[in-house]
C-alpha cells in the first residue's frame, strides 16, 4: 500500500516513501506532543485513538502536520481558544442565572459558573468561599486591587493540593485575562497567608514536589516570576535571545514543546504581561 492516512488525522493520505515514521525518537515525540493537545480543538482526539505501544511501523505523518503539532505558539493558541470557550460558557451560565432586570450591555461579574460549578462570588473569599461577618473582624474581606497582589495570586496555584480548588482558581484566572480587577476577587487575610504567603516562603526544593500537572499558563507564570527577579529586582540587561533560552528551559521542564518559539513571541507575551513596565531596545546596526 503506497498511501496511508496521516497519523495526526488531517484527512489527507501520506506518501509511505517520504512520510513514514522511521525512528522511535520521532514516535515518542509525537506521543508526547499529542498528549499536550488532548481535549483541544486540533489534534484533540489523536493521543487516545492510537496504540502507542505498537511502535511506529506502518504509520506516517506529514511534515507540515508534525511541525504544527510541535509548535508552541500553535499550542498556546489552541489553549487560548479553549479558555475562550470556558469564558463563553461562564458568561452564558452567569447570564442565565443573573437578575432579570440586569441589562445585556452590562455583564455581571458578581458570580461566575462553569462546568466546575460556581467559580467566583465577589462577596466570598476566593479560597474558602465564606463571607465576612461583622461579629468577626478577622473575617473582613480584602480586595485584590494592585498588580503585585495579582501576580502573587497567579503564581501560587501550582502548589494547591486540592485539585478542584486549583481547577476552579485557574478557570477564574483564565476568565480574568487582562481585566482581573473587574471581577472583584476578595480574600481573607488568613487564607492569603495559608496559600499565597506559604508558597512565597517555599524554597525551590520545597516547591518541586508540588510541580505536577502544571498547565501552560502556570509554566509561563513561573517564567514571568523569573523575569521579575532577573529584570526588575536584579536590574539585569538581557537580550531577547537570552530570555528565549530562559523561557525554553523553564517551560520545557513541564513537558511543553518550545522548539517553534521565537524571540518575537517572547516579546509579545512579556508586553502583554508587563505592559509599559518593560521596554525593548533595538541593537545599533553595525557598518
Would you kindly provide a written description of the structure presented here, covering whatever features stand out?
This protein is mostly helical. It has three domains: 3-70, no CATH class; 105-213, no CATH class; 214-287. The chain has helices at 16-19, 24-36, 46-49, 63-69, 72-97, 147-155, 163-176, 189-201, 204-207, 216-233, 240-252, 263-274, and strands at 3-5, 13-15, 111-114, 117-121, 141-143, 186-188. The strands form three sheets. A two-stranded antiparallel ribbon has the order 1-2. A hairpin with a 7-residue loop joins strand 1 and strand 2 (13-15). It is globular.
Question: How are the SSEs placed, and which strands pair?
Answer:
Layout: E1 3-5, E2 13-15, H1 16-19, H2 24-36, H3 46-49, H4 63-69, H5 72-97, E3 111-114, E4 117-121, E5 141-143, H6 147-155, H7 163-176, E6 186-188, H8 189-201, H9 204-207, H10 216-233, H11 240-252, H12 263-274
Antiparallel strand pairs: 1-2, 3-4, 5-6
Helix pairs in contact: 10-11, 11-12
Give structural attributes.
287 residues; two-stranded antiparallel ribbon; single chain; mainly alpha
The radius of gyration computed from the alpha-carbon positions, rounded to a whole number of angstroms, is: 22 Å
Strand order of the largest sheet: 1-2
Main structural class: mainly alpha
Q: So how many helices?
A: 12
Biggest sheet layout: 2 strands, antiparallel
| Morphology | globular
Number of domains: 3
Q: What's the helix-strand series?
A: EEHHHHHEEEHHEHHHHH
Low-confidence stretches: 93-109
Distance between the termini: 58 Å
Tally of DSSP β-strands: 6
Strand content: 5-15%
In round numbers, the mean pLDDT is: 83
What share of residues is helical?
40-55%
